[in-house]
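A quick word before the example. In earlier lectures we treated sequence and structure as two separate objects. From today on, think of them as two lines of the same record. Here is Cytochrome b-c1 complex subunit 7 written that way.
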Amino acid sequence: MSSFLQSLLDPKKSWLASLHMKALTTRLRKYGLRYDDLYDPYYDLDIKEALNRLPREIVDARNQRLKRAMDLSMKHEYLPEDLQKMQTPFRSYLQDMLALVKKERAEREALGALPLYQRTIP
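And the structure line, produced from the sequence above:
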């Protein structure tokens, strides 16, 4: 059953998933965002920890993209067409670090230790 569900969600195999990915790409390009920009660090502590571990330039670029998107949204405008074509919405910058943080959290849980962001210094 899981392989069937996985094939439904794979954009290379399912036309519905590829249609959704195409619509999402178009929407993200209009505002100049990347898919990883949509993750909220206040919702998930793993994402917050992954963002803290990334280099400062990458986090600053993320914040700049989010500010630009909010500004465009408030003005009810989109990026110019030539800038939209330059955007790469599915170029990931957070997934590798997020996978590392989740792996470390799972390892800590297996060992019975507290997560890194819940520890206190005596």
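Notice the following. The chain has a mean pLDDT of 88. We will return to this example when we discuss secondary structure assignment.
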